[in-house]
Amino acid sequence: MDRSHDREIWRLAIPAFLALVAEPLFLLADSAVVGHLGTTELAGLGVAGVVLQTVVGLCVFLAYGTTASVARRIGAGDTRGALAQGIDGLWLATIIGILVTIPGVLLAGPLVRLVGAGEDVAGPGTAYLRIALLGVTPLLLMLAATGVLRGLQDTRTPLYVAVLGNLLNVVLNLTLVYGVGLGIEGAAIGSVIAQVLSAVVLVGVVARGARRYDASLRPDLPGIRTAMRAGVPLVVRTLTLRAALLMTTFAVTQAAIGDSGSQAVDLAAHQIAFTLWGFLAFVLDALAIAAQAITGRYLGAGDVPGTRAVTARMVWWGVMAGIAVGVLLALASPLLGPLFTPDEDVHALLIPVLIVAAIAQPMAGVVFVLDGVLIGAGDGRYLAWGGIWTLVAYAPAIALAVTLDAGLVWIWILFTVVFMGARFVVLVHRARGDRWLVTGAAGRGTGQVPRETTGRSAPSARMTAPGGTSTLAG
Asked: What is the pTM of this model?
């Protein structure tokens, strides 16, 4: 078994995992700060958070697409071109952020009510959202800059910024909410300040690298348009994933609609299970992030055998990680329910649901890794169509579950077998073929060569061959 790629994989994956885990832990701290103001304020934060997470979640392509395109040019030895494409991504993030922020601030109230907030919750929710939306542009810049740094094979800098930025967020929130007495508005202000400072640091690192390699910091409209076009398939992919999750929750809600007590138990167990599924997914998503960066770099260098070899090794690690987290989840399933609720009915229902989720973890490991590999290969169009066909397969199954009044356990079996199974088939089928193995600096989905790449060649080609380190490190 070839272990030569292990150090390279985990050098990227471990910091990525820690950065991913840092976000939800500090979001929990935010909830704790606001929660002590009252239940209404906490509910308002939750409603506003749904709006913000939807906007930012749809723009995750700013990180994924940028990682792939930058990594390709790094593999081709064109650090200058890589940074130029990264700058295009930053400008695109700025444009999208402004276009979202202005109408969002004006329509904060209607947006909160659209999510379903009642009058008592709409007030604090609107107050928080109107301020928090000012942080959308910094958040999108953080996504784009993180994508650039990952493409440059640097996952440590985003980790440091994530941890320090979120610590600052907690300190500011405590100070402004309780020390200054601004209430829920203080929490929004503190978050925006922390987001702005984090964005400044990340963008500053990228801009410094661009200046070092003589890449222009000015907006390049053709490059921005190319980055936008490359992002469309990834948006479609994200929409299909979110649609599947919404379908699943809808099925759980409808399955016990005639019995309010049963519905509450089912929804509570489902929410806990999905929370744990999402947390465990961070382990597998870290491997996917490493896969994006490594795949793009190898294909940019024209190394197809190396791409095949490192993909096989990452898939192996995905299976091993899936087995490990699956075993832990199964063993811990009787103990996890009491951590979330004292309801014995929820405890009893949660155990078989978590067993189903645990069994699916090795397959999920393959799905996450291959998703990252194909994103790194710039194969977004296939991922978009694959997401659509997966949804087409899943929708009738989940509709049948609603019709037959299937219980929560059966719905989770459908989610893991049909939805995750369909994703597994779609991704493995693609990975076994050759059409995604497009080599060179401008692979499928990366578009044209930006104008900054013309001129003298990048002086760092020797530093960016497969197995190397970030060109901005040190």
From this structure: 0.81
